[in-house]
Amino acid sequence: MSRAVVFAYHNVGVRCLKALIGRGVDVALVVTHQDNPNENIWFQSVAQTARDYGIPAITPDNPNAPDVVEQVKACQADFLFSFYYRHMLKAPLLEAVNRGAYNMHGSLLPKYRGRVPINWAVIHGETETGATLHQMNVKPDSGPVVDQMAVPILPDDSADEVFAKVTVAAEMVLWRSLPGLIAGAAPHVQQDLSQGAYFGGRKPEDGRIDARAGAAQLHNFVRALTLPFPGAFADTRAGRLLLWKTLQAGRTTPAAAAELYLEAGRLWLRAADGGRLAVLQAELAGQALGAENFAALAGGDALPLSL
């Protein structure tokens, strides 16, 4: 029986941990995170999954600390797996197992290496993304690819909807790759890093809307950041605007900057390029915003977004 140490968090962590167990891998130790009380914890718990299966679990602040490395070495594991674990794992950890360390990444590597790849893919209007199992080395998301699976990004998919697809793809990729990995027969294909780029993490303040952007760009931005993420926002004369759901809806006259307006009993966003979005869910100054209260909250017939 193969033995593994698993570093994991989030839904991908839960599903991939269960895939290992389902394939008969002996998971000797799970390393996960303490939930942050300031974060919207909308996803499943790896720590609870480990408890359910009677697997020892730890939540170190620094996974690369010498005592953690020694715990991993003591497991005498064949493999180390990382499934949406948020900290970088350094060389001593990657070398603490006998047959290699592997990571599940939420993109079609070498595209969208780095942080929050699904959100970045939606922001950039991609029509597909996926899950990639690759061998880990010290440079993040650059090791040889074992397997990957694509999923579609539909024009109105939110990042959360795409994440659900990628979670299933990750489980399937791991499930079908494990027999080859255990047998020592899995492919390891070197990445051409020139075919992709590295992206950094995102903070809530990165959700500020560019009022000069075109309608397609605005729509992609909104759906990439909508719930359960912090949201796309703009400041206006009536207070802070949060856009949660939009649909592309033809064209109108261009504007100097994006503006909300009311027409035919519906709320619209006119973009600088003349594209138009139907606004299906929004907040203004902390209140739910719709056609019925737009004039009262906005103080007029149109509400420009601040540049």
From TrEMBL:
Domain Formyl transferase C-terminal: residue ranges: 203-295
InterPro entries in the cross-refs: Formyl_trans_C, Formyl_transf_N, Formyl_transf_N_sf, Formyl_transferase-like_C_sf
UniProt domain Formyl transferase N-terminal: residue ranges: 24-174
CDD domains (UniProt xref): FMT_core_ArnA_N (cd08644)
Top-level taxon in the UniProt lineage: Bacteria
Pfam families found in the cross-reference section: Formyl_trans_C, Formyl_trans_N
PANTHER family per record: METHIONYL-TRNA FORMYLTRANSFERASE, METHIONYL-TRNA FORMYLTRANSFERASE, MITOCHONDRIAL
Name recorded for this polypeptide: Formyltransferase
